[in-house]
Amino acid sequence: xxxxxxxxxxxxxxxxxxxxxxxxxxxxxxxxxxxxxxxxxxxxxxxxxxxxxxxxxxxxxxxxxxxxxxxxxxxxxxxxxxxxxxxxxxxxxxxxxxxxxxxxxxxxxxxxxxxxxxxxxxxxxxxxxxxxxxxxxxxxxxxxxxxxxxxxxxxxxxxxxxxxxxxxxxxxxxxxxxxxxxxxxxxxxxxxxxxx
Length: 196
Known about the structure:
Layout: H1 3-13, H2 24-27, E1 32-36, H3 48-66, E2 70-81, E3 84-86, H4 88-91, E4 101-102, E5 106-107, H5 108-111, E6 120-131, H6 137-144, E7 151-154, E8 159-164, E9 167-171, H7 175-184
Antiparallel strand pairs: 1-9, 2-3, 2-6, 2-7, 4-6, 5-6, 7-8, 8-9
């Protein structure tokens, strides 16, 4: 997939947002839901048993949504905030096995002047990969400890899977599909009224 192919796909499929996961729950609220990775909505795994539960839950639902051996995109990015430059795809060992293609920079100040300062830039990057259950566990663990940020997209299934330190956010193809999976995985949902 070329940069142009990605841009065309993203703007035609997700025109209300940019590839930044914290925006999805606002921009696609009708299709968004969240599961927590540990019982009682515990945020951090602190034992081998808890890591086993976390990875089992995450792999189970992701594999169900994507299918085993599905072609997916892994998307991450790098920030340039004033004097501080953080090149995520260059620094993190966990990303070495993926071949990223960098996309055009996004001016975060133009996106939201209330939240960002002038000169704050986000530059996304994507890599083509295959979803195989437990093959991406190292990546999922790095995300679960908030060391990196990254998410997956299935073009075929029109699914976004955005793990974070505490659970996974999903954007599904429509509200009916979302409602089906929310019901199926209701024991893993947040107890908060807003679903966060």
